[in-house]
Amino acid sequence: MQVSVETTQGLERRLTITVPADSIDSAVKSRLQQLAKTQRINGFRPGKVPVSVIKKRFGQAVRQEVAGEAMQRNFYEAIVKEKLNPAGMPSFEMKKDVDGEDLEFVASFEIYPELEVKGVDAIKLEKAVVEISDKDLDNMMDTLRKQHANWKEVKRKAKKDDKVTINFVGTIDGEEFDGGKAEDFPLELGKERMIPGFEKPLVGAKAGEE
Predict the structure, then answer these.
(1) Rg of the Cα atoms in the chain
(2) Among 29, 127, 142, 171, which residue carries the largest CB count within 10 Å?
(3) Are 17 and 2 spatial neighbours (Cβ–Cβ below 8 Å)?
């Protein structure tokens, strides 16, 4: 395989690749021989079709298939050899594909730009230092306790920090709206997670009240 590299413009590269004729012709011959063993053609027994007959009927298609595979394979070998890093798929252009002669094609593609990072040694890094006070720890412990609290039912009026289970229906001008209804909805009083004023009538309410 022979390879020449050309820089057309900017990041675009153009590879001209030449593949020896014997490698293409031998691959075509091998594939035609395999077809001769499997193809059924009138006038010939299965597996006894002459390669010359197979070549006449399938030769062009087989060569195109072999040439396509050769272009893909040799392109990747070429970019490894030339240490190129394509930024996308190449476009192929066949230049010469004749029986008994070297296969020649062109692959055009763009490469990733080479970046050079300078001045790294001059960069100063500051290590962040966080001081955790006893108050911070107390607040965290209090939060964890609330998150993992075990609730139990009581027979008294609801107050702040209690968890109540309610059913409600939201309305606008007396009409119920989508998403404004819920049943067995858990709500912790004092967290103000609902619309303003929603919790106010619940403080002081008893189980079963409406």
Answers:
(1) 39
(2) 29
(3) yes
Helix, strand, or coil here: 13?
strand
Measured CA distances, 102 to 4, 25, 106, 146 (Å):
15, 9, 13, 79
Q: With H, G, I as helix, E, B as strand and everything else as coil, classify residue 16.
A: strand
According to DSSP, the residues that pair with 93 across neighbouring strands are: 106
Query: Over 80: is that where the pLDDT of 180 sits?
Result: no
Rounded to whole angstroms, how far apart are CA atoms 71 and 28?
A: 14
Cα–Cα distance between 158 and 163 in angstroms, integer? 8
Q: Evaluate whether 109 touches 13 at the Cβ level (below 8 Å).
A: yes
- Which candidate, 68, 33, 74, 39, places its Cα nearest to that of 51? 33
Structure tokens at 186: 């858990």
Closest to 40 (Cα-Cα) out of 28, 22, 66, 58 = 58
pTM of the model: 0.52
CA 36 to chain centre: 43
Residue position matching structure tokens 């091998």: 30
Q: For residues 123 and 120, what is the distance between their CA atoms, to the nearest angstrom? A: 5
The 10s digit of each residue's pLDDT in 32-63 is 998 888 888 888 887 778 888 888 888 889 99
Burial class (CB in 10 A: 0-12, 13-18, 19+), 27: middle
